[in-house]
């Protein structure tokens, strides 16, 4: 099935324009290709002190709206609102609050809506992930929320940088050329998990026909907008449950879904490593007036992407990971059966390869990250004081003043994730932590990856000089000591003789939903604790006798990497070490 032909034509035109922009290097001022607004607007929220005190003191789960007003400048025109409350689920428990502000009239600065979803993005030190992710869908002409950054002032005090994410409703449908009166629903089994007879995180896989009143049951276990056709929803859930993966599923899927939209939705989620998306973080739309229409998926909630996710049941951390598999999850049989159907998975993987190679390239991300850093960097550098952050501690949970490092981590994620996905799509034999790379006499690409058979990048080498080409083998082995990182990197250059910047990647992770809980650092801290700091790591070259020569080293612990200029010839061994006396007191920012 396909979207309305006009909508798809517009999407195609946007894609062509976007593809043209991808060829422009970041340094030349690449244009923002999204449908979202760049830059930061001011938003002044005014509330009676008693109402403000109630908002921050009452239970986080309260959805009662309290009175207030809004201005776009300190002395600007007052804009009436129906009320304000906190928004989100688990995010309500975080110290920087997200807001739902309902306006009496539609507002131009909200893309013509009267609903404002101000997301605090406290878990994201770049405060870019939500916008970067949604922009990918816009580039492909797929329906998704538009975004806009705001500096929020509450009763005249600066309380942080926020991102407004457009509500998924009839207004969003209309702006994407879809019928605003169509069926729009979201899976909410997660919110009803503990109710008798459910015990699942998704409706897709539930025996809905065992219910006496299946449509009424779905109406109580799903979120919705407008007046959905619950009969159509029932048919879809029932079909997923009773249809096995394979040819029958493929035929039924093509009949029921907008295949291009669904594949793009899945592909982007795997490219950005969003493993939190198959429960209640998407919407399904159907144009019930068009008998030939297929279901369309609309994304939602993209803060846990580009390496950011929960560790030890918390999303407030600086851990990094890119190895989440191309898999389902959240009990969602729709996604699982799609992936288990060879023909559908083959088309998904082909689309992923195309998007990585031709559309969402490293140059694309470099340009977008530069634009976002320029747009919001000043706001991210606001520090707590008398006139800032009275109600909230700061913009995000991380170290302040490290935006360049945090931004680089997103770029590193893309590079490493693409290597991982390439191995997942095109498997190669080999052992973990062993890889080889060819260095030609005149390399077309200066950056060489040493990626093992599991898709983990042992190291990268930025070639600056090739005196003799050849194949270099790399391996990582355990050491009997822990000088900082308890591994030794060994490179056998054979006949090759090259110089360049060597970057070593190490594991530093703990128990999580999605990534190997393996840690090579002397502490299991994501960046540092009161004794050890990854910022102090230095690369050292070891000779056969174990003597070490220290190298001038660049470290980004948010990406778990350390870099130094080296020459590779013969056998070369490297370790990452800490000073003999660990630093116990830190000054940051």
Model description:
This protein is an alpha+beta fold. It has 3 domains: 5-169 and 361-396, no CATH class; 182-359, no CATH class; 423-577. It has 12 helices and 20 strands. Strands 12, 13, 14, 15, 16, 17, 18, 19 and 20 form a 9-stranded antiparallel sheet that branches. A hairpin with a 5-residue loop joins strand 13 (447-451) and strand 14 (457-468). Helix 11 runs antiparallel to helix 12. The longest helix is centred in the C-terminal third of the chain and has 23 residues, at 403-425. The chain is globular. The termini are far apart. This is Spore coat protein CotH. InterPro entries: Spore_coat_CotH_CotH2/3/7. It comes from Methanoculleus caldifontis. Pfam families: CotH.
Structural class: alpha+beta
The tally of domains stands at 3
The percentage of residues in β strands lies in 25-35%
Mean pLDDT: 91
What is the general shape?
A: globular
Distance between the termini: 53 Å
Pfam families: CotH
InterPro entries: Spore_coat_CotH_CotH2/3/7
Protein name: Spore coat protein CotH
Organism: Methanoculleus caldifontis
List keywords for this structure.
about 600 residues, alpha+beta, 3 domains, 9-stranded antiparallel beta sheet, 7-stranded mixed barrel, 12 helices, 20 strands, about 25% helix, globular, disordered N terminus, disordered C terminus, Spore_coat_CotH_CotH2/3/7, Spore coat protein CotH
């Amino acid at each position: 099935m396909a979207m309305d032909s006009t909508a798809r034509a517009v999407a195609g035109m946007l894609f062509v324009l976007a593809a043209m922009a991808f060829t422009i290097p970041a340094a030349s001022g690449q244009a923002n290709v999204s449908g979202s607004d760049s830059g930061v607007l001011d938003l002044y929220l005014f509330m009676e002190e008693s109402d403000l005190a109630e908002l921050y003191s009452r239970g986080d789960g309260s959805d009662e709206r309290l009175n207030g007003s809004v201005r776009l400048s300190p002395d600007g025109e007052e804009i009436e609102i129906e009320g304000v409350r906190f928004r989100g689920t688990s995010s309500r428990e975080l110290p920087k609050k997200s807001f739902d502000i309902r306006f009496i009239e539609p507002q131009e600065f909200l893309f013509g809506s009267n609903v404002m979803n101000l997301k605090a993005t406290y878990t994201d030190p770049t405060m870019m992930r939500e916008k970067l992710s949604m922009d990918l869908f816009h580039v492909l002409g797929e329906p998704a929320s538009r975004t806009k950054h705001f500096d929020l002032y509450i009763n005249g005090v600066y309380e942080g940088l926020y991102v407004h994410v457009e509500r998924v409703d009839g207004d969003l449908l209309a702006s994407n050329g879809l019928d605003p009166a169509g069926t729009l629903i979201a899976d909410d089994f997660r919110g009803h998990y503990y109710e008798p007879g459910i015990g699942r995180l998704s409706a897709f896989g539930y025996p809905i026909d065992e219910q006496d009143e299946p449509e009424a049951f779905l109406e109580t276990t799903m979120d919705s907008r407008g007046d959905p056709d619950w009969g159509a929803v029932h048919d879809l859930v029932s079909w997923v449950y009773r249809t096995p993966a394979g040819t029958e599923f493929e035929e039924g899927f093509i009949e029921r879904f907008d295949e291009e939209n669904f594949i793009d939705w899945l592909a982007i989620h795997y490219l950005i490593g969003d493993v939190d998306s198959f429960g209640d973080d998407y919407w399904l739309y159907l144009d019930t007036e068009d008998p030939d229409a297929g279901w369309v998926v609309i994304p939602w909630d993209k803060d846990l992407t580009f390496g950011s996710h929960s560790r030890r049941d918390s999303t407030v951390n600086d851990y990094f990971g890119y190895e989440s598999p191309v898999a389902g999850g959240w009990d969602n049989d729709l996604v699982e059966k799609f992936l288990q159907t060879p023909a559908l998975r083959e088309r998904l993987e082909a689309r992923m390869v195309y998007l990585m190679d031709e559309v969402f390239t490293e140059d694309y991300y470099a340009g977008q990250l530069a634009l976002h850093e320029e747009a919001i960097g000043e706001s991210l550098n606001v520090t707590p004081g008398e006139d800032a952050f009275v109600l909230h501690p700061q913009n995000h949970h991380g170290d302040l003043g490290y935006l360049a490092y945090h931004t680089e981590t997103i770029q590193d994620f893309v590079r490493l994730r693409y290597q991982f996905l390439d191995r997942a799509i095109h498997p190669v034999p080999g052992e973990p932590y062993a890889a080889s790379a060819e260095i030609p006499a005149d390399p077309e690409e200066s950056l060489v990856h040493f990626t093992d058979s599991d898709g983990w990048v042992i190291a990268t080498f930025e070639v600056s000089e090739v005196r003799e080409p050849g194949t270099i083998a790399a391996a990582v082995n355990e050491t009997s000591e822990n000088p900082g990182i308890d591994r030794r990197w060994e490179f056998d250059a054979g006949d090759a003789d090259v110089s360049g910047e060597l970057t070593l990647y190490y594991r530093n992770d703990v128990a999580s939903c999605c990534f190997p809980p393996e840690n090579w650092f002397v502490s299991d801290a994501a960046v540092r604790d009161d004794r050890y700091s990854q910022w102090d790591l230095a690369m050292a070259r070891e000779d056969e006798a174990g003597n070490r020569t220290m190298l001038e080293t660049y470290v980004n612990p948010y990406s778990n990497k350390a870099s130094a200029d080296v020459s590779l010839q013969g056998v070369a061994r490297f370790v990452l070490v800490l000073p003999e006396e660990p630093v116990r007191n830190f000054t940051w920012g």
